[in-house]
Amino acid sequence: MEELFKRLAGQIAFGVEVVAALIIAYGAAEALIGLLPAARLWSHGGRKQVWHRFGMWLILGLEFMLAADIVRT
User: Fold this and answer.
1) How high is the pLDDT of residue 45?
2) DSSP codes, 4-37
3) In 35-57, which positions are buried (b, 16+ CB within 10 angstroms) versus exposed (e)?
């Protein structure tokens, strides 16, 4: 029974890690697309907003990674 629970927890943790990777990849893609117009205009406010949003996606992804580690533990 314990082995079944550990295996299930490992599968859940893997699924959460996949979600975390997708979140981070989405944030990176959004940041790259957002930087294209900001790079042409060299507007500090535009770049700053893009980096803040990217940071938000990174934090969310890291929270999911932490959740996966907790489930695995």
Assistant:
1) 73
2) HHHHHHHHHHHHHHHHHHHHHHHHHHHHHHHHHH
3) eeebeeeeeeebbeebeeebeeb
The residue type found at 73 is T
- Rounded-to-5 percentages of helix, strand, coil across the chain: 95, 0, 5
- Give pLDDT, residue 38: 59
Q: What is the pLDDT of residue 56?
A: 97
State the number of CA atoms in the 13 A half-sphere of 8 facing the CB: 5
10-residue mean pLDDT profile of the chain (73 residues): values are 94 98 97 78 75 96 98 93
Contact predicate 68/16, CB 8 Å: yes
